[in-house]
Amino acid sequence: MTGQIAGVRGVAPLLPTDAVRWRAVEDGLRTLMDAYGFREIRLPILERTELYARAVGEVTDIVEKEMYTFTDRSGDSLSLRPEGTAGCVRAGIEGGLFHNQAQRLWYQGPMFRHERPQKGRYRQFHQWGVEAYGMAGPAIEAEVIALGARVLAQLGVKARLLVNSLGTRECRERYREALVHYLAAHRDRLDDDSLRRLERNPLRVLDSKNPDMAALLAEAPTIADYWSAESRSHFVALQDYLTALGVAFEVAPRLVRGLDYYTHTVFEWTPHETLAQATVIAGGRYDGLVSELGGAPTSAVGFAIGMERLVALVTRLPAPPVLDVFIMTNVSCQLRALVLAEGLRDAGLTVETHLAGASAKSQMKRARDCGARVIVEAQDEARVAIVQAGAAKGEGIVTWAEAVARISQIVGAKAKIDGE
Ligand code: ATP
Ligand code: MG
Fold it and tell me: Which GO molecular function annotations are given, in alphabetical order (predicted)?
């Protein structure tokens, strides 16, 4: 059989021009992780399905209809991870990271959800998550939020920060009753998803993306009326801290994360246009989850960045890495070109060689497209020409033996002009 094989819907490769942008964003994020004392954890992509059923919750979009679940050859039900927090907690418990220790962790990588693909919504997408464990007060929430704000500021992304508090479990229980009472009184205006959630997870109804329900939800009771004194003071302190740190925010009284283990603070950043698939970073405190998954009770707060959405919003990209040298060569000089390239790499330079046997014209086009600092062209057995060195044109012809030293010198001078 021959012919082209289609990719999986909603699952796309990242082509080199996009990968360059992603890498610049990721490099910036890594530096920020270091700046806030977060350490990388690399998590599996496959987990037991029950992890998500328990951690994310049975009555959620993710578990009800979005997971890639299959039975493996040993008969175990496994799922491709739809998010990172559950796996992070599981790995932290198993690795003993939470024993009376504060931990700041980050991870990144692909997540999988069977959703309807559209702009900003894919079936394989990427998250960059940060999670902080063992810190109960509003201070760590403020610090994590400041980190999120810095991520966006550094990349020139404009988004509104929305914050709310779900209070303690008890506050939420009382709120839940009031909410169910309100929604049940307007049962005729609820869509099917919401009717189902009304029984089992009414807070998630507030999360509905259905525009027909917006007016109804805008009138729903808010949790603020059900906060305990402790919940209120926690949330007030967080707001004071954010103000002191110069982080702008808006209180969004109906912002929820409808999972049982969320407590106190929830937050998200959404760009100014209010699209359904707009949220770029979402997070909150989830003090209940570690014990829910069999660990000792442990405070936890974190967020996840939707990388596709973030990269799409970036207006200020850190400069991509520069190619130092591009080597053009005819077929008979290819071995000499390879030897020269290796010598230049030994000297610490980045080098691309053109080995397709193409015309000088097309090689030159490729060299220019790469933005190489220096372009050289093999002449014959004896010599190589430095055909273009940016500002200083026509540096002349050198022997192969002289080439590494001469080219290194020119690249060094150019790098200095570029301000490196
Ligand atoms: P949404 O409300 O957009 O469905 P969500 O509440 O399901 O998002 P979370 O589980 O909180 O999303 O995931 C955190 C972030 O991951 C989101 O804010 C978004 O930026 C990103 N994200 C979630 N699902 C997708 C997807 N299918 N494609 C691309 N990005 C996604
Ligand atoms: Mg979703």
Answer: ATP binding; histidine-tRNA ligase activity
